[in-house]
Amino acid sequence: MGFDPNINIVADGWEKDFGSRDEAYAWLWQLRPTGSDVISPVFKKNTDKWLTENKNGGITFRRETRSWVIWFRPSLPDLW
């Protein structure tokens, strides 16, 4: 058909530093409003796997992801 699809999977991620775990919980909690100002223990437990202490004494949230980069290299058939 004249199209040569290419796919590349790139390791990616998102991270943000916080002063404390409570600051991280509060910031992440507001990303998905639940109608409650009380941060649930289940939310904290689920979030803890992405929180690590950093060298500055704070907390780093890092969520690793993968991005799929798709592009096409068009080529015309050699008809002439």
Describe the structure.
This protein is an alpha+beta fold. 21% of the residues lie in helices and 44% in strands. The protein has two helices and three strands; from the N terminus they run E-H-H-E-E. The chain starts with a strand and ends in a 6-residue tail after the last strand. The mean pLDDT is 88.
Write the layout of secondary structure elements.
Layout: E1 3-18, H1 21-29, H2 41-48, E2 51-53, E3 59-74
Antiparallel strand pairs: 1-3, 2-3
Strand content of the residues, in percent?
35-45%
Q: Please give the radius of gyration in angstroms.
A: 21 Å
Give the % helix: 10-25%
| Alpha carbon gap, first and last residue | 16 Å
Uncertain stretches of 5 or more adjacent residues = none
Q: Biggest β-sheet: count, sense, barrel? A: 3 strands, antiparallel
Element order: H for helix, E for strand: EHHEE
Number of domains: 1
- Oligomeric state of the chains? single chain
Please identify the structural class as seen in this structure.
Answer: alpha+beta
Average pLDDT score: 88
Q: Give the count of helical stretches.
A: 2
Number of strands: 3
State the strand order across the main sheet: 1-3-2
Principal-axis shape: elongated
